[in-house]
Amino acid sequence: MASSKIDYETIFQNAPVGMCISQNRIIQACNAALGQMFGYAPEALVGQSFLVLYPSHDDFERTGARIVPIMSAKGSYSDERIMKRHNKELFWCHVNGRAFVATDGLGAGVWTFEDLSEKRRVTAVLTSREREIAALLVEGNTSKEIARVIGLSPRTVEMHRANLMRKFSSSTSSELVHRLLGVSS
Question: Does pLDDT of 103 surpass 70?
């Protein structure tokens, strides 16, 4: 029986989710699904900072500050966050990353991106800080946990949560999380 060699480049290019290889938060290679999701030709993303995929520079910096220690400790990271397409449309995205060298969080790694916009819409105009807190709320974090992760006081986090509740017409934290997730309560 003839042995057939696995063509990893073909697998990467035809994966059903957006994928890229990065180093120091710079895209080194990406597949067509990633380009299509974000509205770019894949070759236009190669050599670009992940910054082009974020709603703002602030979002990029804060997310990086959260990711690097976790990647450096565990070698992997996963979350759901609001990202930005080339046409400036904001959308929820599930992001997974794995470092090639587990202790080098900013080194070379592979990332996958899954567009969640069919299940979850961005329905309110949020500040960078509100997007960060919304992403952490969706993960199930309490205000104290969020405060510890992002370096704010629990009272400040509660203020942002109250703003989110107002923007999403939610009367409880549970209702807010359901609305952020796009689940009817």
Answer: yes
